């Protein structure tokens, strides 16, 4: 029988994930489907986007979830971690993988603690770092054994903080919210070689609900967000790990007089001239990311 394709997703979603598969399709997973995630249960299904054609139904999840993470593994599977089954519930400690060879989701062990709004990043050796989410704990998923193993704890709890793997294999985690719900300007780096964390340069502005992207030259662009759930930021900042990203003690990049400067032990942030833009509307999590920035009611910018 022919697959039924739609021009638009069959289900409206928020706090979901979207992951590009090796065959070019996009796997859309979970989320909430009613009233902006304030009272909704997690969506128990998935969809595929087929480029140039449209959307079609995907397999059911092992566990309905929203505010989870999705990470493409080296073997083509997609690791789905944590989130919430419904609004107001405790975060999930369950994980599952999408197996493209069978087109199904399969359970794959449990986290050490329930997590939602956590950071996730694939390491060069294929493992996945899972960190934070209202906790300072971290762990590593080993795709060869399909198990989670403990990792060194973060310097402090950090929620909804985007992460990226740098060209030298370390992981940069930026901003987010602290245990008191305040936006953070600080950033930390995880070194998988030593299983250790270290603080790196702070941004000029605390940011929550922001996003970041690794640039072709190894620097990291940080965009937007909000410092207080009232002001939306139109500023951008660039993190420069230095001329030798494998070095632990290199010099700060030089900036022209229009750029901001900070001091930190290993790396530099810089920023073009830009301004804050006041807004009467509250911020939403950035779209187009495999990491969902949702916690309880936070996907609509409200504090719990």
Structure report:
The chain is mainly beta. It contains no helices and 22 strands. It has strands at residues 17-20, 26-29, 46-50, 54-57, 69-72, 78-81, 94-99, 104-110, 119-122, 128-131, 138-142, 147-151, 163-165, 171-174, 187-191, 196-200, 211-214, 220-223, 231-233, 236-240, 268-270, 276-278. A 4-stranded antiparallel sheet has the order 1-2-3-4, with no helix packed on it. Strands 5-6-7-8 form a 4-stranded antiparallel sheet, with no helix packed on it. A 4-stranded antiparallel sheet has the order 9-10-11-12, with no helix packed on it. The radius of gyration is 19 Å and the shape is globular. The relative contact order is 0.13.
Secondary structure tally, helices: 0
Alpha carbon gyration radius: 19 Å
Low-confidence stretches: 245-266, 273-304
Strand content: 25-35%
**What is the distance, rounded to the nearest whole angstrom, between the alpha carbons of the first and last residues?**
47 Å
Order of helices and strands: EEEEEEEEEEEEEEEEEEEEEE
Specify the overall morphology: globular
Main sheet record: 4 strands, antiparallel
Write the topology of this structure.
Elements: E1 17-20, E2 26-29, E3 46-50, E4 54-57, E5 69-72, E6 78-81, E7 94-99, E8 104-110, E9 119-122, E10 128-131, E11 138-142, E12 147-151, E13 163-165, E14 171-174, E15 187-191, E16 196-200, E17 211-214, E18 220-223, E19 231-233, E20 236-240, E21 268-270, E22 276-278
Antiparallel strand pairs: 1-2, 2-3, 3-4, 5-6, 6-7, 7-8, 9-10, 10-11, 11-12, 13-14, 14-15, 15-16, 17-18, 18-20, 19-22, 20-21
């Amino acid at each position: 029988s022919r697959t039924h394709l739609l021009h638009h997703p069959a289900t409206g979603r928020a706090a979901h994930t979207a992951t590009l598969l090796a065959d070019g399709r996009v796997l859309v997973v979970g989320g909430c489907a009613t009233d902006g995630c304030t009272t909704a249960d997690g969506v128990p299904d998935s969809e595929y986007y087929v480029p140039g054609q449209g959307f079609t139904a995907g397999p059911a999840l092992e566990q309905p979830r929203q505010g989870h993470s999705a990470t493409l593994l080296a073997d083509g599977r997609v690791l789905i971690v944590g989130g919430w089954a419904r609004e107001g519930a405790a975060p999930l400690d369950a994980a599952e993988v999408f197996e493209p060879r069978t087109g199904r989701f399969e359970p794959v062990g449990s986290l050490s603690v329930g997590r939602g709004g956590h950071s996730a990043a694939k390491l060069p050796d294929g493992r996945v770092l899972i960190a934070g989410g209202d906790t300072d704990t971290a762990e590593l998923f080993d795709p060869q054994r399909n198990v989670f193993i403990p990792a060194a704890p973060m310097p402090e709890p950090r929620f909804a903080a985007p992460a990226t793997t740098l060209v030298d294999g370390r992981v940069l985690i930026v901003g987010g919210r602290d245990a008191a719900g305040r936006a953070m300007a600080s950033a930390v780096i995880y070194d998988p070689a030593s299983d250790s964390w270290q603080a790196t340069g702070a941004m000029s502005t605390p940011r929550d609900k922001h996003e970041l992207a690794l640039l072709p030259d190894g620097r990291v662009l940080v965009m937007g967000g909000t410092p207080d759930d009232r002001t939306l930021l139109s500023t951008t900042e660039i993190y420069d790990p230095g001329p030798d990203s494998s070095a632990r003690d290199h010099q700060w990049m030089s900036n022209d007089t229009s750029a901001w400067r900070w001091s930190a032990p290993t790396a530099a942030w810089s920023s073009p001239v830009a301004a804050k833009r006041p807004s009467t509307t509250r911020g939403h999590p950035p779209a187009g990311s495999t990491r969902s920035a949702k916690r309880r009611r936070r996907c609509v910018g409200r504090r719990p």
